[in-house]
Structures are given as structure tokens and as C-alpha cells.
Amino acid sequence: MESHVIGKSVPRKEGRDKVTGQARYVDDLTFPDMIHGVTVRSPVARGRLRGIHFESEIPWEEFTIVTAKDVPSKNCVALLIEDQPCLADEFVNHPEEPVVLLAHPDKYLLEEARRAVRLEIEPLPAIFTLDDSLAKKEVIWGDDNIFKSFRVEKGNVNSAWNQADFIVEGEYETGAQEQLYIEPQGMIARANPTEGVMVWGSLQCPYYVHKALVRLFGLPKERIRVVQTETGGGFGGKEEYPSMIACHAALLAWKSSKPVKIIYDRAEDMAATTKRHPSRTRHRTGVTRDGKLIAMEIDFSLDGGAYETLSPVVLSRGTIHAAGPYNCPNVRIRSRAVATNAPPHGAFRGFGAPQSVFALERHLDRVAAAVGLAPEELRRRNFIREGQTLAVSQVIHEKVDMSRLLDRALELSGYHAKRRRFREENSHCPIKRGVGFTSFLHGAGFTGSGEEYLASEAALEATSEGRVRVLAGSTEMGQGTNTVFAQIAAETLGLDCDQIEILQPDTSVVPNSGPTVASRTAMIVGKLVETAARNIQETLLGSGFLKSGYHAKDFVDACRQYTDKFGALKTLVKYEHPRELHWDDEHYRGDAYGAYAWAVYVAEVSVDTRTAEVRVEDFVAVQEVGKVINPVLAAGQIEGGVAQGIGFALHENVVWQEGRVVNGQMTNYIMPTSMDVPPIRVFFEEIPYARGPAGAKGIGELPLDGTAPAVANAIAHATGVDITRIPVTPESLLDLLESVHG
């Protein structure tokens, strides 16, 4: 059947409801007798909780008050492990840690009451830096402050140094970054012993929330129900944290016997929730005189905050991506995520790779300079090719052609002409121009055996009216999940997208399709949708009610006849791990991902050396992502990711004071506006991936990896300063300019 919707920019499934205001976000919902909830948080980074005092002239008898003693079962927010309490009991381990929950019908009185709760906390010594944590200045988690560590070995790094004509070392740092989704965190809960626990909220992963509630209340799984409401952005920030706020709302609802709504304002959201992990990466690279990489030794550290949350998974992806799309015979990567007394860091688009890729791509520009090669020539001589192995010893079977991507990106951006022109112009102008690039890869799906462990499921149901319903736990949060699933199902069945209905994620209705993260939704879950659609089609063809070469009306008739005779027409598909993919968790090597997206990004910047202000003037993003299902949505993913990457590179500086965010509002946490974002020119190369739906791979996280280092390399080219830390704020750049130029 000829393609009729794949590769076309069909309208968003939820677009009309959003633009007409009919979409219902969590704060739009109300229930009879609903009351409001708030959280009382620790003002200190670490200490022993000695008492909770309810002061002032507040009618406390009107309030529902919940502390750790009210938790029905295990006082934890279950995720990878159970180290993070839902409510602090004996100790607090970070500023803003939840201690007390309050609920009341009057939102304004509730805020007064929150201010009238005094927490008596005996301060204990705290840890705020990677160095202090690694030195075990205080042991605040486990035996050594280390949540997780990895070691990757390929070849023999120790013996390779003697073969190197140049050895280049460098240290690089990245700061925290706030996800800054449009809609803050929010949840509504209804809970009682008769009905169980039901929550509605803004979230990415309904079954994460479900797992946490099961553990907190000690109830059977079928007595917990989680429903995703319309979600105004996530970017990873609504992956694990919604479990916390859902638990809080549910505890208040359980004790009050009333529905409870908790909606964070922007200040609380920024102060209390997860952010991108700050990082430090050390590189030692051996290279021959002709520019061939001989050895790469990489040390990668992440600040995980006070509890483990998703730090091991973020560390894993950052570790695997740390050596990039290059063929180096000898690689050693050591990595670890450590505890500090800051609010826990967590998932953010890119998941550790933006941190390690920044370090690598800045470092390779310095390696090229040491050898005397142009940055593009050094990369070209070391690009991975089909049949060669990455740092984790994964043999590349894809038809990757990084040199082609590089040539196209440099040509589209006018890279070489700009370099020549800027060399002349910069000598006599205070506004310096520069151009830089990055080449990188991003693995789609969960790492290694992750997809096999998840064992994701999706279902399709054809109704008697000939409509097809997609049942999946994957969530729509603006990235296009619903539209892409509809296109995949419609393409497979030969129908129009209007005949496909995507059910609202609700754990009482849809199967567990795994989390909506890791660039996996279209590639992994979309493939399940495609397979389920094919099963529906084959069932109808096999029944004789549908003939090959059918039209949409024939499909409707066949569905009616089938359901009249046999009843429901529904199929459930479970993920099957490809037998040829093997991953060794113990030694951390093998097939890390089923597929990679490959990219080269080029940034042009101007730097006013009088004020150290940086503007990104032009940006070219070239990527190979398999088959593009919806060009407008795909381009939007790249454009949005580049915009976030520019913020990561230049603007978004989280300022910490003893573990607390002190610029947690949008007046002093600077993010790029439309005036700060250049024209972003997006180009796709399409090499269909055999195991993806219609040949698609994942692309959601890709643009975050390469944007910041491309911008940093361009600044270095414009000014001659060595950029080793982001964000490159005017203040930090001015110091660098003065140190170099006086």
C-alpha cells in the first residue's frame, strides 16, 4: 500500500482543543467538596527534625494536617530504589524537603497557615560541591556518597600513551538547568478505603506514579488509578517528580476524605523540583601527528543532589555518549553520580548526554589546535564508520556517513566562507564574529537491557463503527505523541488519521507502555502500535470480511461485521527484544542502543567584547533520524531543542546558596526569548531504520546534545578564549576576555 500519511505534516490531534481553549489541564478540573493542599518545606540543607510547631492565630482545627506518621505503608517515593522519603521524619537532607502537608478549602488562609508552621531543626554539616562529596568531607548517603559509578574499557589505554605524539588534557563543567515547562506541577487526588486512590495530573509517566502510590499506601495495584490530564510541557521535569506531588495530594485526600488539589506556583516549582545535573568532565586524549585518535581517558562526574532519583540512568547515558561518534581503539571512561545536600537532580531532555557531549566537543577543538588541524579535519579523520566499534564496543551496523552530514552542514551554513570573512573583520571591530560546529550521536530508547526489562505493551481496538482506538501509556505533552501514533496506525491500516482515536492515558484502561522519555516513544512504542495495527488488519483479512486493496468504507463495514459475529476486535502487543542485540551490564559494553540519530550542528555567534554579550546569529542543524513521520513536528522538536540548548549554553544560570536556588523566578532566571533565538535551519537525512515504525528513529533529545558545544566553539573562535564552562554568561566571559586580552 503506497504511503499516504507517513512523511506528511498532518494537523495535530489535540491542536484544535488547545487553540480553542477546550483542552483541560489539571488546574481546570474541579470536584465536589474539593479542597486545596500545600507543602511545608525545610529551610535548611541538612539537619535533625526536633519538632513541628503550629503557631499564630490560625484555626488549626479546620485544617487537614499530614506528617510522616500518617503514611499508611512505606514512607518513600518508590523509583529505582526507596531512599527518598515522601515526608521527612527524623532528618532533612536538602532545602525545600517536604515535612508537613496542609489542606483547607480556602487557598488564601492555607498560605497564611503554611507560613505559621515552624520547623525546629538542629542543623548538621552539609555538602554542596562535587569535590567535597567525593572527598567524603561528610558522608551524607550510603558509605561513600556515590549513588552509582560506571567503568567503560576498550582496548588498552595505559599502553597507548606511548604511541601518541600529542597528549591533550582539559576539564569542563556544566551547570544545572531548569526545565521551565509552561504549566507548573499539579495534581488532584481522591482517596478513601472504599474506592482506593485516584489521581489526575500533569505528568509524563503514569505508571511511575502508579508504582509510587502502590508502595506508599500498600494497596493492590488495581486499587490505584492514575490519569494524565493535558500536560503543558515536561522535558523530563515531569518524569519522576509527579510521583512526589501525587503522593502528597493522595495522603491529604486519604486523611480528609475529600478530593485535594495541589498546584505549585512558579517559585515553588523552581525551588523544589528536579533540574539538569551539574557536571564536571576531565579529558586526557592521545593523538598522532596526522590527527588519529589513539587513546581517550574520560572522567565524568554528576551532582545528583540529596537522593538517588534517576541519577544512575542519567549517568549511564552520559557515560555512553562521552566518547562521541568517533573510532578510537583505546578508551577508558570512569563515571559516578554523587550526593550533595541540594534538592535531587533528575531527568532533563538529553539525560546526561548534553553534559558529556559538551565536554567532548569543546575538547576536540582544543585537540585539533594542538595537532595543527582544522576542527572539521580532525573529526573527519576519526568518524565512526559501519563495521567499527564505539567506546562501549558496540559494532555499528547502520549505514552511518558522518562525513556527508558534516559536508552538508558546513556547506549550508557557509562555514568556510564565514571563517575567512570573520578573520578579516574581527581584527578591527569590537563585535567579533565566530562560527563553530559539533558532530554527535544520540541513542534512541532505553540503554542496554532497559527496553527488555520494561517489556512495554500497547493495544489497538477496532470499534463496530470502524474507528480504531490506540491504547498506550505514552503521554502527549506537546511533542506530538498522539499525532504520530495516529499516523502510524492510519498508514498501516490504510485509513485517514481522523479514524484513529488516541485514548487518554489512564492506568485503569491503557497498558504500561513504559515511560515517555529517552527518545523512545515513536521508535519503540510506535512500533508496537504499528504491529498491533497490522494484527487488526490481518484479523479482518483472515476473517474474510475485508479484502486486499480495500478502501476506508470497506474497513468500516468489515469492523461492523466482525464485531457482530465475534465481539470485540482488540489486540495487545508486547515488546520483543531483538535477538541480535546483546548488552553486558557487568562490564558495560555491547549494544547500548538499537539505533542512533547522527547529527552535525553549526552555530554562528557575535560577541560584543565591550559588554561580553553573545548573540547566536544563525544556526544550522543537520541530522539523520531514520524516516521522518511528521516533518512539521520533527522540525519543531529540533527547533525547540536548539532553543533550550542556547539557554543551556548562554543564559540559564542556576544560582545556589547552601543548596537552595536563590534565583527561582523568571525575573532573574534568564531563559532565551524569541528575540534571543536565531533562525534555526533544520535539515533531515532519512535512512529508514528496519526496526522502527515506517523506518523511524527517536529524535526528541538529540538537539540538546549538540547545541551548547557548537555555540561554545563559535565563541572560542570569535574571541580566542578557552570556553570550559557553561553557561557562558556576560560576567564569566568578561573575566575570560580580560584574562586573555587584558
Can you summarize this structure?
Helices cover 30% and strands 24% of the residues. By secondary structure, the chain is an alpha+beta fold.
Describe the structure.
The strands form seven sheets. Strands 3-5-1-12-9-10-11 form a seven-stranded mixed sheet, with helices on both faces. It is globular. It is about 30% helix and about 25% strand. It contains 19 helices and 28 strands. Helix 5 links the parallel strand 10 (about 195-200) and strand 11. The protein has about 750 residues and is α+β, with helices and mostly antiparallel strands. The longest helix has 23 residues, at about 520-545. The N and C termini lie far apart (about 70 Å).
Key features?
7-stranded mixed β-sheet, alpha+beta, 24% strand, 742 residues, 6-stranded mixed β-sheet, 28 strands, globular
Query: Going across the major beta sheet, what is the strand order?
Result: 3-5-1-12-9-10-11
Unreliable stretches:
none
Average pLDDT level: 97
Kindly provide the radius of gyration, computed on alpha-carbon positions and rounded to a whole number of angstroms: 26 Å
What percent of residues are in strands? 15-25%
Helix content: 25-40%
Q: How far apart, in Å, are the first and last alpha carbons?
A: 68 Å
Helix/strand/pairing class, anyone? alpha+beta
**How many strand segments?**
28
Globular, elongated, flat, extended or rod-shaped: what is the shape? globular
Tell me the number of helical segments per DSSP (H or I, 4 or more residues long).
19
For the largest beta-sheet, the strand count, sense and barrel status come to: 7 strands, mixed
